[in-house]
């Protein structure tokens, strides 16, 4: 989701709707109203619709869906004399550049929305400027023809918002944008630049422009240049901006060598396939009408197919299924009558759940209270319980309290005891929950198992009493004395079933109890319940 | 008659009037038990109780010390031996510590036992023939004398404290005397021995006071959130869904690539998925599947143009914590599910997020798929409406178009929940053809995913999401 801010007044005026109805209206086109504060409406747009990252984009599509406009929007481009020359040195560095000229009328508001579309487009669609970066310049300050070429890191120019000249490499180190986006130019010996006819740097893509071409509210002509690694991405991003400008009434001019291709993609779609996908029998005519609402160009092909023209600013068409979705949106999801479920299959619970049910009933029958805790933990929490299991760790945790996966349940239950020392005893707890351990042989290098951990924390707790649960859990088992810091020496055992150790039990050692501030003896049992998850 | 009651009556019948503490000593019972026994006997008319309040004087720590050593002022006075001497020498001779010196001086003057005279450089202490009143009082008190109102002096100097004591004087009534002659004792518990020997015939059983019969005991119970989830499982099984489970640690291949999520998609970044800190990479067992997924991304499969980038198998082998249970659906589909098939899974998924009352980084998701020749978007809406009503009791639903990388068309379900208005309960869609083609699935597949935590919070009356996995026993012990 990408968030944009548009003017409430403008939106209400253009849609002819009060603020209260905006949310429902925008839902129709996958947009969510996040908040309204004063004149600012914050709207979340899904990441497949970069063409909706502006008021113009939203209105263009919404008016189509509402039947006020139809078909592919017009984008008139006149030719200009200006030229863009592309140097071959960029082929291996940042090969793509597309550009156009725009006659604009900027005021403070338009200026803000210009900055917003630039920012939001490059953020997600442009993959943080790596795939697509946008530079907007005051064209009146530029001597054409311009050249997209390379420059040495030591070459100097006056960057945007700076007062002195800086070398290209200095810009990467000393400016905010430089530091943020230097990663894109890592390892390069020469950097991409756009020069004017005199060879002066007017742009250092994807970092920043020169101060000379700074756009102000007085600017009347814009040069919009996009550079990147993917032609379709750059071309469609430029198309998004140009369509927005054109919708505002601004005139667009192409640049010779500018590379912008305004040809809609064409896709042949079978009417029946769309009908089957939606579950509605559509005629060819009905489908055409729906797709026109979605601002697509459409022509009948024979009687069973249509040829869909997709505007260049739409980036989300890979397969005819994307056309089917447009038809569904134009139809209105809440207009489609849901079909009562009719696929007959017999349901069943998993073996794991059935087993868990039995173990749960057993423990409840013994008078234990069930607890459910987090799977995420930390090595510190683990160490507090003297657990020696090597935990699976997370590379990018959000908190040091939750930076690993638990391998046993005991630390979690001990924490519960620790938190409840002010409540009455006995405290008899159990948890049936998942733990994850390293398992090199498995394809995920890890195994998710379900364990049972039981703690009887009371003055009269002893191991013999707790052990009476075992015959109810396992048909045949053997106990073997076990030593661990967790348990009082000589008062712990391993539980073995079919020659394999399935768990441990013992009376908690005073050290373990004191680590958690628990002043009541406890007997502990932890066993594997299910380890055969496929 | 109860054993204790009889004991008390017998003790009184020989002594006639006893104070409650003496009664406890005579019967060997605890003083507290005596209290309840005599109340019950009084109720039956067997005894009379007279309550007398007494104020007892108890020696405080200082009082005890002064009793032993003498008050500081007496010691100072004694040191003078009737003669004047310099203040300093007198204090030293008395053997007082710094604290006591101050007290001694203050009180020796106040009690008029001596006078301080200024003499040149030094001060002199001149004794009077007055004895220490406080020492006398303490000594008399110790001997058990009644010092009357003079006790106020000792109290105000904190040498003694007052304690109010009630004394209960118990006397037996004629009826009590008669009752005391019983040899009959009530049994408090039927034992195996009484049954075996038949002696139960000679006994009478003590009655319970029904008002004090019930003791609060903690009993075994299931976790409320787990119960909630278990209930949902039953409902889904009732709708014909088969339960499956997945693993927490998954390959990016299954969590993203096989779902046709491009490798540079924003949802694959470090702030959207937890990555495992491990050098080892996972393994894709089906290399043909890997090839098909690669093709789907690079050139497209079915009638798709694909994403058009170079797909990196190394990225696909990276290990992550599953961010949705859809990876499981992909795995199940790859095994070759024969339609018609309906599967569901409820399990934990993990996503980086803030941690507050509304968000946590691990939560439960309920996911399912419907695999059948003839399913369409309208069928999907039908299932979703059914879930909302059956599983969550929502009478009204609405659908909003949305975007997921692996479904098209995609839908968001909103349910009208009482007291909360429209709440987003989940997302759904038809799996993309590219994904299905790579998995060799020949029919459409409906998929849906619902977040259970917010719904559980609503159903269980919990306002903080962290309480779903609470450590607070008082919450888990609630009925």
Concise description?
Chain A has 16 helices and 27 strands. Chain A is an alpha+beta fold and 534 residues long.
Describe this entry's structure for a reader.
The complex is a heterodimer of chains A (534) and B (479). Chain A has 534 residues and is α+β, with helices and mostly antiparallel strands. Chain A is built from 16 helices and 27 strands. In chain A, the strands form 6 sheets. Chain A has a 9-stranded mixed beta sheet with strand order 6-13-5-14-4-7-10-11-12, covered by helices on one side. Chain A has a 7-stranded mixed beta sheet with strand order 18-22-23-27-26-25-24. In chain A, strands 1-3-2 form a 3-stranded antiparallel beta sheet. The longest helix of chain A has 18 residues, at 108-125. The two termini of chain A are 34 Å apart. The model of chain A has no long low-confidence stretch (mean pLDDT 94). In chain B, strand 15 and strand 16 form a beta hairpin. Chains A and B meet through helix 8, helix 10, helix 11, strand 18 and strand 20 of A and helix 12, strand 9, strand 10, strand 12 and helix 17 of B.
